[in-house]
Specification:
Shape: globular
Main location: membrane
Number of helices: 18
Strand content: under 5%
Oligomer: single chain
Subcellular location: Membrane
Distance between the termini: 21 Å
CATH class: Mainly Alpha
Radius of gyration: 23 Å
Organism: Lentilactobacillus parakefiri
Transmembrane segments: 12-33, 45-69, 90-117, 129-147, 154-177, 197-219, 231-251, 282-307, 328-348, 354-376, 388-409, 415-434
Number of domains: 1
Protein name: Serine/threonine exchanger SteT
CATH topology: Amino acid/polyamine transporter I
Structural class: mainly alpha
Amino acid sequence: MKEQKEVTLDRDLGLWSALALVIGTIIGAGVFVRQSAVLDDAGSTSMALFAWLAGGILTITAGLTIAEIASQMPETGGLYVYMERIYGKLWGFLSGWMQIIIYGPAMIASLGAYLAILLSDFFGFPSKYNAILAIGTIVLVGILNLFSNRYGATFAIITTICKLVPVAALIIFGLFFGKENAFGQSLVHVHQSAGNFGVAILATLFAFDGWILVANLGGEIKNPRKLLPQAITFGILAVLAIYLLVSYGVYRSVPAEQIHRLGTSAIPYIANQAFGQVGGKILSIGIIISIVGCMNGKIMTFPRIMYAMAKRGQLPFSKTLSYLHPKSHTPIFSTVAELLIVTVMIIFSNADRLSELCIFTVYCFYVMAFVGVFLLRKRNPNQHRVFSTPLFPITPILAIGGSLFVIVSEIMSDLPGVLTSFIFVAVGIPVFYYETKKYRESQAEAAKEESLDKEN
């Protein structure tokens, strides 16, 4: 026990590592496969570009709001820690529980499943091996994250750079060789459900999701009070610029009606037209690397929440889950536990559906965190802040409004799913009280034994 207490997380991640994790965790396959969906919902190329811009602005307001909290609470666990400090241990636990049991594993499993499809298409594997490919890839990335956090961070930087190559190719081709008008092309006459601008923004918000996960590494970032806000802010801004430029390039390259007909095949079609079959293969490799990088960011960050909760004795097997390897200084058992949950989801459930179910609860906790900025300022009016949310209170109000928009949209479109997500969260309540009681009893027993030892 004495050795374990001496082992701590390594605080050696710099700004570039944090930036790579923000960008790499956000950009998965969404920028490549959602172009047609956003265009269909928006109804025209102009409105689609505005939808990407609106989604990015709402995400930036969310990031700037959380950045103020992150600068005051630069600890491992991110949102879980913020909720605990602002609203109490139960709310903190429930936000963490939802992320480590359902949302995080489901997101990783969904990425693995989509990656397996791409790998099967690229190498010509039979689809019956997709589950094995998904699990195998996830395990390999997971093994990388059992070593020092420097390896995961380095991998994040490499994959982020690699994924920007096909992105840059699409942007350059569209800007300099595209012949279509990126503004003003309409889909109203070919798509009956076109023109739903709100749904288009909703689709882009999901494509921006993942920016907050870098906060889970607050205990491993150098000077986190300064670097966390910078990584979140500049990371989101970079992703917004990439999404807008890719969308503009796509709309310049192919007529809107053809993008609608091609659906998720629109960008592979552009690559083949622009660069031939080799270009299509290169783009496929870029998407594969993009997903692997996104997966790495999630596998690196979600186990940190489990570790932080276990350190407080709030989970079954907390002693094991809070263990840090003496050489790598990483929570190896929390990482393994998260990978086991992911594997079970891939084999026995629909991970895409599970991740969709949790969107509602994730945004409920987002709203509470955004409101928390007002509460913290009221509680500590004279506290010095290393970072303050710009244009306060407009910025957090916009962040709250964007999240409420997602919440209301989810209730209207998927009420059974919303109720199911409540069940997932509610299951954590008895777990919290049982484990908290057990932890307090064990602490009291340990204190009693220590007192007796001193007397003797």
